[in-house]
Every structure is written in C-alpha cells, then in structure tokens.
Amino acid sequence: MYAIETTKLTKRYGDYEALRAVDLQVPTGSVFGFLGPNGAGKTTTIRILLGLLRATAGRARVLGLDVWTDGPPLRQQVGYLPGDVRFYDHLTGRAVLQFADAVRGSKAAAEVERLSSLFVLQLDKRVRDYSRGMKQKLGLILAMMHRPRLLILDEPTTGLDPLMQQTLYAELRVFAEEGRTILFSSHTLSEVDDLCDHVAILRQGALIEQDRIEVLRRRAVRRVEVTLADGRPCAAPPSALHVQEQSGTRIIGSWTGEVTALLKWLAESPIADVVIAEPRLEDLFLAFYNESGGVADAGAN
Description:
The protein is α/β, with parallel strands linked by helices and 301 residues long.
C-alpha cells in the first residue's frame, strides 16, 4: 500500500510546466528521499500533496484520500516542516505549540514536553529571540508532536548541529518503525544515503528515477585503485572498468554496477594491492541532474 500515490500529476503556470506527468509511489512506513536541484518541482509537488495548490491535470492521493476534495481531514493526519518555516515572533515557543495543539485537537502536551527535552529547546523564550537552529527545532516539534501518519520534511536539518541531526535521525527511524511514513526532501545527499530506504529524483518537473536506495547504490560509481605485481603480465581489464589513470603497475578507474566481473578479473590478475571504495550516490545523483540539458536552477521548486 502507498502512503502517497500520484498519476500523471501536472502543474502549469501559463506556458511554463512546473510538473510533467509525475507518477510517484511512496510506500507506507518508508523513509522516502525526495531529491532534485532547485527548480526541479519538489516544493510544487509537496504543496499539491498537502492540498495547498491545485494540480492542472492528473491525480494525487495521500493516505487513501484525494488531496483536493479531502484536504481538511487529510491535513489532520500529516505533519509538515516547510523549508522556510515561520512563526508569530511575539509568541513563546510554548504558545506556538499550544495554539497548534488546540487547532488540531490533538492533546499532545506530553509529546511536546518529550520532544522539547529531546531537542533541547527552551519553550518559554519568545520566538523572536530564537536562533535559526532553535526555530528549526520548533518547526520539527510542530510537525511531529501529534504523531502524524505522514511526515513531510523539507530540508529538516538546516541549522542543526551534527549531534542534533543524529538525534533527529534516530527519532525519524522510530517513526518509520511505528509504520508512519516520512517524505524527506534534502540537498545533503549523505544524510539521504544514511536515512532513506527509497528515493525519487525530480529534474525540470519530471520524475527521472524512483527505486529502493540499495538498487540505486548498485548502479552508483565505485572508485577502483589496483597495484599490479611488478613485472608480471595482466589480462586486459573489463570494459566496465573506466580507466582514468595508468602508470607503471598502478591503475586508477571507476566501476559502475555489479562487481562480479571486476572480482573475477582481480582474482585472475597478479595483484599486489587493491582498493575498492564505497559507491558514492552523490555521483549517481549528479549524473541524473546533469543528464540531457543540465541542472535546472530556476522556476518553481
């Protein structure tokens, strides 16, 4: 079952097409990475999924509900942290959370206290006196305090120190273990690699890839460095090994895909030393971003 499912989702602004026939499936209980450069269409998609923006064409269902006709009951089950979260600055953090709790009718006072302790946030200060990181923590508590079935986070670690980022990751893993779904938009590819189990990549309004992250990892590039035993003949390397540098007994290159052929060649060669680096998803994502026309850096997000 999918927590989010879109069919041919399209959004146009006059002649400009911000989204083009996007078919997105987010499995229930997954931590789903939603990636793309600025202008790819991520924020436009999220706003449609929340019922805040109407699609030009296509269909979107979230938690089994139509995002436009069932907006109010749907939003009660969703937590959302926008990338540019803002508050009433004259209120204290506690007052902001109490107001949201009253509007939702969620009776989340105990969870507010737990999360504020977890994220080490002083709730009795006015928001105008909060740092950027403190405001980010307040936004996270606001999104998570009612234990939503779907949590949508847009750049959630902005302003957080490394220790607090790890605290957030641990809490998100608990959410997923409880069967809740997390849609996670980020430009920090290392945290997507560490946290997410599925990934979708948008470019210029089109969905160009969607798969489990281990499938994408198998397609990512590994750096290979081989030192041959001096003076001993070696068979030609497999064609999938893209040799970037070869001098004397040293070969440096890159390998994409399954490593069976590489290991077979290494086993049959007079090897003195070998290094096979972990695949870098960042290289794969950048290849997707730049493929067929380059990275989009303008227009709707």
